[in-house]
Specification:
two-stranded antiparallel ribbon; mainly alpha; 7 helices; 192 residues
Amino acid sequence: RTLEVSRTPLRAALQTLAGEGLLHHTPNRGFTVPEQSLSAIVDAYEMRALAEGLAARLAAERGLSDALRQRMEDALTDGDRALAPETADDARRGLYAEANAAFHAMIHEAAQSQLVRDVLRICQRVPQTSAHNIVAFDLDDVRQRHAAHRQIYEAIICREPREAERLMRQHVLAVKLSMARWFGQQRAVDPN
């Protein structure tokens, strides 16, 4: 009622989210958000590291169009702006999340592999592993991650596939470590 949305599209949206594994449906009880264990989060990051690494390697092997190269540079510049000292703290997370998601999406596009995209979509069933979701936002960690984006980009444009793959895997695994640290801190604050 508050959002002035009828039940039919709302039910359809909930069913879609349940089909993607983001919600659990119990007949006659409704929908719930599944509790994610640290183990599930770690597994999803491990798989994402493999898929993202492959995407970066394929992008380096296949090369970037001028338009895609420019869009990647724009995403890197947007990340620079988001992390600049003059950016308001309350805006920083959202701005960086957009730049981060755009950068990763362009690498997926450059890889030209539907299989890689499918695997990454499955990994995102654990919401904490999505490139759109910047949960663990320690500014120093995020600045290091952004610096890794630049290194990955340079390996791709220099057509160094193995280096691009190595850097991307290392990057995703560093995010996994930040997420695991954040998850542990949240559990310490709220053990329930």
